[in-house]
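Saturday, quiet lab. Running sequence design on the structure tokens for the scaffold JK sent over.
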């Protein structure tokens, strides 16, 4: 719900910028109507302004950690961004990717994260492979990938 309100606020601000000096009060009814109906119009409104589309970058604590015991791998993910107040906000989805020779980076698992932006995934694998975490960009935050590592 908080993310929906933030997206609506960003859409209102971007509509005001696009209108060329229109006040937020005049643009607010348009944003409220699009947010209440379907998701497609609100995305198109926010998608028109590239500078205001993803105002938040990833937090410096966004990372992936792996612990290996025998053949069992435990992935611990942390994914979040800092809002305007400087408080960390958790990202709800992240992707663990594995590097396959000749095929490039492939999705191993899409992981749902909790409200703090943390989650785990367990897997058994005896081979050494390269792994990384990827976060898709949305209208609220910028995406990115972590450095790859071999384990």
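Result came back. Writing it out in full:
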């Amino acid at each position: 719900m908080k993310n929906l309100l933030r997206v609506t606020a960003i859409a209102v601000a971007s509509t005001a910028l696009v209108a060329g000096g229109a006040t937020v009060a005049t643009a607010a009814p348009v944003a409220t109507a699009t947010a209440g109906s379907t998701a497609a119009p609100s995305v198109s409104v926010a998608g028109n302004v590239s500078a205001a589309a993803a105002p938040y970058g990833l937090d410096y604590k966004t990372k992936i950690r792996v612990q290996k015991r025998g053949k069992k791998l435990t992935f611990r993910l942390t994914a979040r961004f800092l809002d305007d107040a400087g408080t960390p906000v958790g990202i709800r989805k992240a992707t663990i990717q594995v590097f396959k020779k000749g095929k490039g980076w492939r999705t191993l698992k899409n992981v749902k994260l909790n409200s703090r932006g943390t989650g785990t995934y367990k897997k058994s694998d005896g081979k050494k492979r390269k792994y990384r975490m990827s976060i898709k960009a949305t209208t609220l935050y910028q995406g990115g990938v972590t450095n790859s590592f071999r384990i």
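Notes for JK: The longest helix spans residues 2-18. The chain is about 25% helix and 35% strand. Ask whether to fix the surface positions before the next round.
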